[in-house]
Design a protein that fits this description.
By secondary structure, this protein is of the alpha+beta class. The chain has one domain. The chain contains 2 helices and 3 strands; from the N terminus they run E-E-H-E-H. The chain is globular and about 40 Å long.
């Protein structure tokens, strides 16, 4: 069963990128919560959701 990770576009790790999610929807909900707390004028980071590469090797 695949797992998913959230990666920052700038490649830096943080509290969000250290998490692993059982589904794409769980990862999406985490990002939705992160972005909901920010105003458009805030200095926000940009993220993407990808399938965990460890799962792709197996």
């Amino acid at each position: 069963m695949p797992s998913f990770r959230i990666l920052r576009d700038d490649g830096v790790g943080d509290a969000i990128t250290r998490q692993c999610f059982a589904s794409y929807d769980e990862a999406y909900a985490e990002l939705e919560s992160y972005y909901a707390d920010l105003c458009c004028s805030d200095d926000r980071q940009y993220y993407r959701i990808e399938e965990d590469p460890i799962d792709l090797v197996a």
